[in-house]
Amino acid sequence: MGSTPSIFYKWGGGIGPDHLTIDTAHDEFLVTDDGREIIDAASGAAVVNLGHSVPGLEDVVSDQLADVSYLSLSHFTNEEPERLADQLTERAPGDLNSAFFVTSGSEANESAFKLARAYHRERGNDRKHKVIGRWQAYHGATLGALSASGNTTRRDGYESQLQGWPHISPAYPYRWEHDGTPEEQAVAAAQELETTIKQEGAETIAAFIAEPVSGASIPAAHPHSAYFEEIRRICDEYDVLFIADEIMTGFGRTGPLFAMERFDVVPDILTVGKGLSAGYTPISAALVSDEISAEFDASDPAGGSFDHGHTFAGNPLSAAIASHVVAQYSDDVLETGRERGEQLVDTLEPLRDHPIVGDIRHAGAMIGLEFVADRETKRPFDPDVAVNKRVYERAMEQDVYTYPGSGSVDGVAGDHLMLAPPLTVSEESVEAIGDAVVTAVEDVA
Ligand code: PLP
Fold first, then answer.
1. What ipTM was predicted for this assembly?
2. Which residues cross the membrane (predicted)?
């Protein structure tokens, strides 16, 4: 063993003295190897929606280990992925009645893109291949998912490897320049999709992907529901599939089980990950509409085939864990998440008129703070003096873990902080998170 760590992990400066070692975790707390208890106000990366102690999982895991370790979904099935698919499709909106399992959020979105392409090909529209995304969005780190993503920080250095897919503006009311009521602004912003489809040629566009409520790049930004109604209309008119990326927003994060329920609009494909297993195992899925799956009907000899999959898709152990986790997202848990989100926003009230806080927004238990150098013009701080990382550090000194964003504003690194505690966080911890963040912002200002 050399003097440098063997683990290859080079995010944000790499593993080093500032990476704490977490020995154990419980409820909303991470416990370091030297006994320090840190409140996890970000649920890891907005993953641990049920906290770090989900009751009953030990039995689920040991029972499953005794049954079957692995099978390839290409040739076999098993009660665990079958049950999970039933649970998900029963609770998903509209006719999203089949689940395609993979392992990560990026893979779920990659699968959605290829499925959209295959669907159009089956229907004789072989030229429909491009995916329209939105600037600032994040859909994953793999090359296809990054191509649809508009997070310029994460695209930087890899542009030459990415698909040249188009992007439209994000649903970012704080920085919209459209005139009119919130509803009119939302419709105007959505119509950028129509303009882009026409410019590119509808015969080349397979799908549009969006996070219903934006994640880490512009945390908690979301439009008036007229936005997604207009998106749905445009997608239908131009035969473009609408993919809702709910990797971060799914499983109660923004209030309802799925964020699209906030807008009462049903996408053609809805991707889930993160909270699906609440962090206990890597598993994700693309939930697919009847209209799409009908093109790939295995009982029809003339039906299409979707030759795509990953080795660990629907792994029985992962599926058993996710099935147990999904059953925990009761109405009560979702309600608690909404209440704690409201309470957390209230604790941030002292920052509402603070000179460096441009916006405080939230959806359920996802809160976004946006820092600006000038509240009047909304000019962000220069990237090298970005406030979010300093607020993050000050909050950590008070034993509260938050999530600094990595988005960008007009090409300038975004200056956001996301708070996304477990839905089950205690009221006492919410107060502690609020106190730490308010103190941190006041200290760095
Ligand atoms: N989509 C969204 C909205 C995300 O927030 C993320 C990850 O943060 C992803 C996709 C990618 O998921 P994964 O990191 O599991 O590949």
1. 0.99
2. none
